[in-house]
Amino acid sequence: MTDLDHRYFREAFTLDGRLYAAAARSSPGTWSGENGADAILVESTDTGETFETVPYPGSPEEVILAWTAVDGTVLAGTNDSRLISRDSDGAWIDAGQVPAGIRSLSIC
Q1: Are strands 18-24 and 64-70 parallel, antiparallel or unpaired?
Q2: What is the pLDDT of residue 46?
Q3: Residue 3: what pLDDT?
Q4: Is the CB of residue 67 less than 8 Å from the CB of residue 13?
Q5: Strands 8-15, 64-70: parallel, antiparallel or unpaired by DSSP?
Q6: From the CB of residue 95, how many other CB atoms can be counted at a distance below 10 Å?
C-alpha cells in the first residue's frame, strides 16, 4: 500500500474495476532540476481504499497528465510528450512520443 504524500493530481481514470492516478510531489513550476517532478503512478482495485505504486517509463521525472483507453488498453500521456500503455501482463511500457507535451488524450 502507498501513502499518498504527493499533492499534485491532474486526473484519475478507471477501467474494468481498476483506478489509475498519477501525481507529482508539487505543482508544475517545480518539475525541473535534479529530482524532476518526483512523480508516481498508483493503481487501486478497491475503489481507492488502498493504492499500489507501480513503475512506468519516464518516472519519476515525467508526470502522467492524461488518460484514455483503446480497445480495452489503457493509454497515458506525460508532460514530456511520452505515450505509455499498460500491457496484458499489467506492466507499463513505452508506446511512443509526440512532438509536444501531452495535456489530454481522446480517441476519435
Answers
A1: unpaired
A2: 95
A3: 65
A4: yes
A5: unpaired
A6: 16
For the chain, which residues make up each domain, given as ranges? 8-97
Residue with cell 484519475: 12
C-alpha cell, 24: 507529482
What is the structure's pLDDT at 59?
93
- Positive/negative CA dihedral, 35, 8, 17, 14: negative
- 102: how many CB neighbours lie within 10 A of its CB? 19
Calculated CA dihedral for residues 6, 103, 84, 53, nearest 10 degrees: 10
Contacts of 32 (CB under 8 A, 6+ apart): none
pTM for this predicted structure? 0.88
When pLDDT is cut at 50, 70 and 90, the band that residue 86 belongs to is very high
**11 pLDDT exceeds 60?**
yes
